[in-house]
Design brief:
Number of helices of chain A: 12
Distance between the termini of chain B: 37 Å
Distance between the termini of chain A: 43 Å
CATH superfamily of the largest domain in chain A: Thiamin diphosphate (ThDP)-binding fold, Pyr/PP domains
Pfam families (chain B): E1_dh (PF00676)
Shape of chain B: globular
CATH architecture of the largest domain in chain A: 3-Layer(aba) Sandwich
Order of helices and strands of chain A: EEEHEHEHEHHEHEHEEEEHEEHEHEHH
Number of strands of chain B: 10
Number of helices of chain B: 13
Number of domains of chain A: 2
CATH class of the largest domain in chain A: Alpha Beta
Helix content of chain B: 40-55%
Shape of chain A: globular
CATH topology of the largest domain in chain A: Rossmann fold
Oligomer: heterodimer
Protein name (chain B): Pyruvate dehydrogenase E1 component subunit alpha
Subunit structure (chain B): Tetramer of 2 alpha and 2 beta subunits.
EC number (chain B): 1.2.4.1
Radius of gyration of chain A: 20 Å
Largest sheet of chain A: 7 strands, mixed
Largest interface: A-B, 56 and 57 residues
CATH class of the largest domain in chain B: Alpha Beta
Order of helices and strands of chain B: HHEEEHHEHHHEHEEEHEHEHHH
Keywords (chain B): Oxidoreductase, Pyruvate, Thiamine pyrophosphate
Strand content of chain B: 5-15%
Number of domains of chain B: 2
Largest sheet of chain B: 6 strands, mixed
CATH superfamily of the largest domain in chain B: Thiamin diphosphate (ThDP)-binding fold, Pyr/PP domains
Chain lengths: 407, 400
């Protein structure tokens, strides 16, 4: 299904510790060994050229289609390349899941084709052989009821990881996720905890069609009682998976169809990421760019152009979609005074819309320019490649948005 | 012997301290002692009607019971009946708001089931849950306090009529959306199989919910994996205002499991229910899911907002009350076997009424939840869920 054509590797991105975070207790002794963050060099190979847009234009006239991010051969590898092991994002997810299942016998996986088939994106490959059919449970195609079953099992103390083969299919389980998963802790007066993890790939892929390219972050964000995180690199994929499984709250882990084959070197030691923390991708001074999931890479690509043009963007991968890490975001805004949000959600009612509202409410006095939010268009994702590229935000749009904000 | 409720109330009135929680709970549990009735002598009872089966052999129609059990059935069912009637008048005097679904008429289902199960078994049901909660060991105070939205309710006033839960006694609620509890119930059964608990889950639903797709999805999975799930259809013949023959092409709900065996039971006969529940538990522990259809009836409408007479005649309601009332049936048995005199039964009834009234009086005194409770229990405090303001120093809201 989803091709791995997008990224061959974003090499050399080392683990980043935001210096303002105070929750280092979750990184098990790892932070001491980490060197300073080094900006890796990323070569961008473009299949189509893009024209220079004047400042008065709001969008580039031609879009970059099929932009691919590849590892630069001449890049110097960071100092930590001696320790750690390299793997792809779906393998990192599997490693996190595997470690947690070994650690706690109550953790189990429930989903379609997760067992014998090994998972449609190979996240659970080999796990049914290791843990047995009951712990890695192949379900029939019945999202509503197997999500409900997962919630019911969690009420007794099990910790199921419920996989939606594609996030869009979980719309069928919306009642179970919203009413039972999110609300049971409250309506029972605290008697039941629902420590489930609901995970699956979402987002716009490569011409998968409208129904298989949905972004459910916007639908679930107002369900009280749920936590939502989005992973974007192998490092944070493994860390967030582990943290989500260990959390007593129901967590939805949003993965992206096009990011499964990202390669990165991750530490050998055990580590867990903080669920509520954002990740500082690139410190800067001119503008704060907030993004998550796949758009992080479009932003990084645009950053290369922006740096050449003399801008110094600060890029934050917000990671935690509910609740927002207003601490990291706020400190960044206090420094740069300009915000650009780049997301893959729809314009209407998306994560960007909520984030914008939260920033205005908390940091109005620090803003020097209106917050810009680049989101996907409010259309069903078309099949045709060119149209599909038009629905999501592309790097040139990000570049011209930054130019506009920084006028 | 636990202090009597009236004594506790008097103490509460004179001292400034609120009565102790444990004292209240003890006083509100059944003080009608069936200890004076023998639990050694056996009485054999024949169920009123034979069992109808689908893909299985019926259990015996002969049920054994004891005088103690008979009197307990009587006392419990009468208390449940009083509880529901009292809730009716509380609703009409606007002390209970929102939706209130009453169970009177169906008491035999929950009482019979309890007699066949242990507290290790799980019960989950929809919104008609007051009596099931009581049967699982909930106190009258917890019931009325929750119905009136007070802090001492079983869900601390945050759930309401449709969200009664008692985790330690294996009662998993209390769910508002029709049918959604059945997959949850199969999840409970999955957890029981996973942890090798040797217990079963009874997932209750109504004739209206029987047409929900998720039910068949859950049944399919339970049968595939041999989960110890018993699906109990409390067929009171009306899904809110729609009669079963207008909603279901095949109202033989016990047959709708297809590959799963089914048993149709007279739900107004507490002994038939007990026998069927025992049979179902044994079956589920060995062979996976089974469906029980309880042919029962509710005297009230669907909820307090429904008069219950626009879609059925008053004659039908009074006819069922005269001929099939579950409490009357037990009463006749008690008198026929000379276990108690009418005067003793009257005493038990008076005691039950008093218990209910006392619990209501106590519940009316209970305080409403604190405003800080608005934000408690949204998330579980612990691993990474402290929520601060933008500076990580200032707390925006109290999240205990």
């Amino acid at each position: 299904m989803a091709s791995s054509a997008m990224a061959q590797g974003v090499g050399g991105i080392t683990a980043l510790m935001p210096s303002f975070s105070s929750s280092n207790r979750l990184q098990l002794g790892f932070s001491k060994h980490l060197p300073e963050w080094k900006r890796s060099s990323i070569a961008i190979r473009l299949d189509a050229s893009f024209s220079q847009s004047s400042n008065s234009r709001k969008r580039a006239s031609k879009l970059v289609t099929s932009a691919v991010v590849v590892k630069d051969e001449t890049a110097t590898s960071p100092a930590t390349s001696k320790t750690g092991h390299e793997l792809l994002l779906f393998e990192a997810l599997r490693e996190g899941l595997d470690e947690e299942m070994e650690r706690d016998p109550r953790v189990c996986v429930v989903g379609e084709d997760v067992g014998h088939y090994g998972g449609s994106y190979k996240v659970t490959k080999g796990m049914a052989e290791k843990y047995g059919d009951l712990r890695v449970l192949d379900t029939p195609i019945a999202e509503n009821s197997f999500t409900g079953m997962g919630v019911g099992a969690a009420m007794t103390g099990l910790r199921p990881v419920i996989e939606g083969m594609n996030m869009g299919f979980l719309l069928l389980a919306f009642n179970q996720i919203s009413n039972n998963c999110g609300m049971l802790h409250y309506t029972s007066g605290g008697q039941f905890t629902i420590p489930v993890v609901i995970r699956g790939p979402g987002g716009v892929g490569r011409q998968l069609g409208a129904e298989h390219s949905q972004r459910l972050e916007s639908y679930f964000q107002s369900v009280p009682g749920l936590q939502m995180v989005a992973c974007s690199t192998p490092y944070n994929a493994k860390g967030l998976m582990k943290a989500a499984i260990r959390s007593e709250n129901p967590v939805i882990l949003f993965e992206h169809v096009l990011l499964y084959n990202l390669k990165e070197k991750i530490p050998d030691e055990e580590y867990v990421c903080c669920l509520e923390e954002a990740e500082m991708v690139r410190p800067g001074a001119d503008v704060t760019i907030l993004t998550y999931s796949r758009m992080r890479y479009h932003v990084m690509q645009a950053a290369k152009t922006l740096v050449n043009k003399g801008y110094d963007p600060e890029i934050i991968d917000i990671r935690s979609l509910k609740p927002f890490d207003l601490h990291t975001i706020g400190n960044s805004i206090k420094k740069t005074h300009r915000v650009l949000i780049v997301e893959e959600c729809m314009r209407t009612g998306g994560i960007g819309a909520s984030l914008r509202a939260a920033i205005i409410e908390n940091f109005w006095d620090y803003l020097d320019a209106p917050i810009m939010c680049l989101s996907s268009q409010d259309v069903p994702t078309p099949y045709a490649g060119t149209l599909e590229d038009w629905t999501v935000v592309q790097p040139p749009q990000i570049v011209s948005a930054v130019e506009q904000i920084c006028q | 012997m636990a202090p009597s409720l009236s004594k506790l109330l008097r103490t509460a009135a004179t001292t400034a301290k609120p009565p102790s929680w444990n004292g209240l709970r003890a006083a509100c549990t059944r003080s009608i002692s069936s200890e004076s009735y023998s639990d050694k002598t056996t009485i054999t009872v024949e169920t009123n009607l034979p069992f109808t089966t689908h893909q299985c052999e019926p259990p015996s129609r002969i049920v054994e019971t004891t005088p103690a059990e008979l009197m307990k059935f009587y006392a419990d069912m009468f208390t449940m009946r009083r509880m529901e009637i009292a809730a009716d008048s509380l609703y009409k005097s606007k002390l209970i708001r929102g939706f209130c679904h009453l169970y009177d008429g169906q008491e035999a289902v929950c009482t019979g089931m309890e007699a066949a199960l242990t507290r290790k078994d799980c019960i989950i049901t929809a919104y008609r849950d007051h009596c099931l909660f009581y049967g699982r060991g909930g106190t009258l105070l917890e019931v009325f306090a929750e119905l009136m939205g007070r802090k001492d309710g079983c869900s601390h006033g945050k759930g309401g009529s449709m969200h009664f839960y008692k985790k330690e006694n294996g009662f998993y609620g209390g769910h508002g959306i029709v049918g959604a509890q059945v997959p949850l119930g199969c999840g409970l059964a999955f957890a029981q199989k996973y942890s090798k608990a040797e217990a079963v889950t009874f997932a209750l639903y109504g004739d209206g919910a029987a047409n929900q797709g998720q039910l068949f999805e859950a049944l399919n999975m339970s049968a595939l994996w041999n989960l110890p799930a018993v699906l109990v259809c409390e067929n009171n013949h009306y899904g809110m205002g729609t009669a079963e023959w207008r909603a279901a092409k095949s109202p033989a709900y016990y047959k709708r499991g297809d590959y799963a065996p089914g048993l149709k039971v007279d739900g107004m006969d507490v002994f038939a229910v007990k026998q069927a529940a025992k049979f179902a538990k044994e079956h589920a522990l060995k062979n996976g899911p089974i469906i029980l259809e309880m042919d029962t009836y509710r005297y009230h409408g669907h909820s307090m907002s429904d008069p219950g007479s626009t879609y059925r005649t008053r004659d039908e309601i009074s006819g069922v009350r005269q001929e099939r009332d579950p409490i009357e049936r037990v009463r006749k048995l008690v008198l026929a076997h000379n276990i108690a005199t009418p005067a003793e039964l009257k005493d038990i009834e008076k005691e039950a009424k008093k218990e209910v009234d006392d619990a209501i009086a106590l519940a009316k005194e209970c305080s409403l939840p604190d405003s800080s409770e608005l934000f408690s229990h949204v998330y579980v405090k612990g691993f990474g869920t402290e929520a601060f303001g933008a500076d990580r120093k200032e707390l925006k809201g109290l999240l205990p």
